[in-house]
């Protein structure tokens, strides 16, 4: 068997693989492999099919929505393939976008994507329109899509790679390989960790994959009476063995019948392990300090007032007030004068550090993303090429990069995919 000129295998037809193939067809003959019959299985269910493709705003703000260890690496792909460039590419192919922010929807032109705030969606057509535009580009460039064709092995040769796939009688030969087969979350879409295994077999270090963008399970007794309650603009920290981790996330928190969810919890979930605690800063420290100062003043001027009045001054939902009172050793019916400054001070502490034990996080079957993956230390982030294996590239969720809710993962997948495809045969 002879090599055809500049053959490229792209393994995995999610957003990263689609973008990589759409760019690599300009350089050579591309075969895009996927274990599913159709491309973009996970993309098609993102945002219930609406496809939050990215978030608007300046890059320096958006980078904060990725883990600290990954920001420097993913920054190059996001600088080359900015939100404006991303939207412009699709606009040129007939897709319009809208930005959603604080309950409003507005048309969004690509040139304005860094100047506004909010989540970006296709105005019509949802995820299918994004998938179809990328597939059209691949086919137009002469690329092939090989569906229901799982790749199970990659071997290095003197001049490239042998790729072993389900449909082939023998190995197919390629000059370059792009691994883009995602992580381990939502395995029903085909993301079962194959990329980690193949990368490991080729000598790469795999950072342990863990669920991300998932809910947290807490002890029943700690969340009793809180199911369905929501808190707004909460800072979420993770405490491990009594020490707060450096990274935190801010957003809404929702109490469920099993524990904690909502955007801020989902965003921080990749940091959490069983045995940790989640710390909720339900009020800004300055607001909490001012609240407790008013309570102290009330205790001096109207000591016969009930603690219920002081709890209501927090502005928090009644069920959260009750939890705070219980933790502080306070009864709503207590008189302020008899409560004592020590317990009122404890209430103030709890307003900025209300903790819930983590029994675990909801697993890969329901997690929206995977954290961990191919170590970024072994990737040339200017090209997405392996530092260990020339001609081997990685992009998307198979890398040790994960983003917050809001389109950050899809944008990172598309941007890193385009960069990988652009970089083959430089």
Provide a descriptive summary of the structure in words.
The two termini are 25 Å apart. With 426 residues, the chain is an alpha+beta fold. Strands 18-17-14-15-16-13-19 form a seven-stranded antiparallel β-sheet. It has a five-stranded parallel β-sheet with strand order 7-2-1-11-23, covered by helices on one side. Helix 1 packs parallel to helix 15, helix 10 (285-301) runs antiparallel to helix 14 (341-352) and helix 12 packs across helix 14 (341-352). The protein has 15 helices and 23 strands. It is 33% helix and 26% strand. The chain has two domains: 7-210 and 370-423, FAD/NAD(P)-binding domain; 215-362, Translation factors (Elongation Factor Tu (Ef-tu), domain 3).
Instruction: Report the span from N to C terminus.
Output: 25 Å
CATH domain class name of the largest domain: Alpha Beta
Question: What does the overall shape look like?
Answer: elongated
Largest sheet: 7 strands, antiparallel
Number of helices: 15
The helix content, as a percent range, equals: 25-40%
Strand order, sheet with most strands: 18-17-14-15-16-13-19
Question: How much of the polypeptide forms β-strand, as a percent range?
Answer: 25-35%
CATH topology of the largest domain: FAD/NAD(P)-binding domain
- Residue ranges: pLDDT <50 for 5 or more in a row? none
Mean residue pLDDT: 96
Pairing-aware structural class of the strands and helices? alpha+beta
What is the CATH architecture descriptor of the largest domain? 3-Layer(bba) Sandwich
- Name given to the CATH homologous superfamily of the largest domain: FAD/NAD(P)-binding domain
Annotation, overall tally of beta strands? 23
Query: How many domain units?
Result: 2
Radius of gyration: 25 Å
